Amino acid sequence: MELARRVAHMCGTGGNGWELLIRARGMIAAGEPVTMLSIGEPDHKTDPMILAAMAQSAASGHTGYTEIQGIRALREEIAARVTARTGVPTGPEHVLVTPGGQAALFTAHQLLLDPGDAGLFIAPYYATYPGTIRAAGAEAREVVALPQDGFQPKAAAIRAAAPGAKTLLINSPNNPTGVVYTPETIADIAAACEAEDLWLISDEVYETQVWEGPALSPRALPGMAERTVVLGSLSKSHAMTGSRIGWMIAPEAVVQAGFELALNSTYGVPGFIQDAALFALRRGASFEAAVAAPFRRRREIVRRVLGQVPGLRLIPPSGAMYAMLDIRETGLSGAAFASRLLDEEKICVMPGESFGAPAAGHLRIALTLEDAALEAALIRLRDFAAALLR
């Protein structure tokens, strides 16, 4: 008996990028003290008031089946939030609630790609991006954004990769680089999508973590709302990673197709989690700013500790909860450096190679420790690199 080839095709041949993280977790389980700067998990937990709203909803009986596309009140709240932030009129008919941003990403590619198509994505990329494209039976095709361009993708590279493609996936603020795409870059991306007749999938889960902006949603540009699918989530904006609650903003026909997919897969999101999400969103922009504030502070810490070190180059983090560090002058690959850093200093970071070839020779550092512990770990990392450079 053989398994279907679908998952093997989805995973590809390059691994899933999590090998070092898995090794670090094994070390922790064995009792070794490891400092984790590897995964984008906020170090502060979900606000107790949100959890209380979730518990109250469950205790009140919202534990049965719900509207598969999402409860009406939550979709209205998400739509109003998008309208206010982008200026694009958005209604509940444009919203599909999903079990987290990852499910929204998977859904978008299932709806827009057929076997034999190609889906484009910008490299460096979040580790699951190519897998969600291949899961639709499509070819996952990289568009390279280069370090010397500040990891800003270029329209010419998109257009060169476009023949045979139907979608382009972008992410700004960006994981892993911490880069925010400039308005000029967003305009160039939109123009390339129109010229090549591409659907644009815009992953905006870090939209509340912008340190240098503006961060422009491409859906707001003229003519783009009808060809853009926006992915959102409460994981980062409200520290609700484990609640698995996100959404997709899209033309009504795409949302209706998403309803049909959810009907045959997830069958919706638990009602008590949706009620908690509604409560969280209604706490407003000031709450979101408070969740983001530690990462804004830590951006300054990483700039102070690593920003002026001879032989190292910090990619200026303009958004998200990460910093990207170029360590190529040490003579090591990102993978080799990160492996030695874990073995010798018990610090776990993600090697750039986990995010595609353009990030080779870099490290992604998650700013997910409290300030003093983060600064101490960064100093140890800096001194480790300095020893290699000598």
Structure write-up:
It holds the Pfam family Aminotran_1_2. Belongs to the class-I pyridoxal-phosphate-dependent aminotransferase family. InterPro entries: Aminotransferase_I/II_large (IPR004839), AspAT/PAT-like (IPR050596), NHTrfase_class1_PyrdxlP-BS (IPR004838), PyrdxlP-dep_Trfase (IPR015424), PyrdxlP-dep_Trfase_major (IPR015421). 41% of the residues lie in helices and 15% in strands. The protein is an alpha/beta fold. It has two domains: 144 residues, Alpha-Beta Complex (Aspartate Aminotransferase, domain 1), CATH 3.90.1150.10; 221 residues, 3-Layer(aba) Sandwich (Aspartate Aminotransferase, domain 2), CATH 3.40.640. The strands form three sheets. The protein has a seven-stranded mixed β-sheet with strand order 2-8-7-6-5-3-4, sandwiched between helices. A four-stranded antiparallel β-sheet has the order 9-10-13-12, covered by helices on one side. A two-stranded parallel sheet has the order 1-11. The longest helix has 23 residues. It is globular. The mean pLDDT is 96.
Query: In the CATH scheme, what's the topology name of the largest domain?
Result: Aspartate Aminotransferase, domain 2
| Radius of gyration from the alpha-carbon trace, in angstroms | 21 Å
| Total helical elements | 13
User: What is the CATH architecture descriptor of the largest domain?
Assistant: 3-Layer(aba) Sandwich
Arithmetic mean of pLDDT: 96
Q: What is the CATH first-level class name of the largest domain?
A: Alpha Beta
Overall number of strands: 13
**CATH homolog superfamily of the largest domain:** Type I PLP-dependent aspartate aminotransferase-like (Major domain)
Classify the secondary structure makeup into a structural class: alpha/beta
Q: Strand portion, in percent?
A: 5-15%
Rounded to the nearest angstrom, the distance between the terminal CA atoms is 56 Å
The major sheet is characterized as: 7 strands, mixed
Into how many domains do the coordinates divide? Answer: 2
The topology string of helices and strands comes to HHEHHEHEHEHEHEEEHHHEEHEEEH
Strand order of the largest sheet: 2-8-7-6-5-3-4
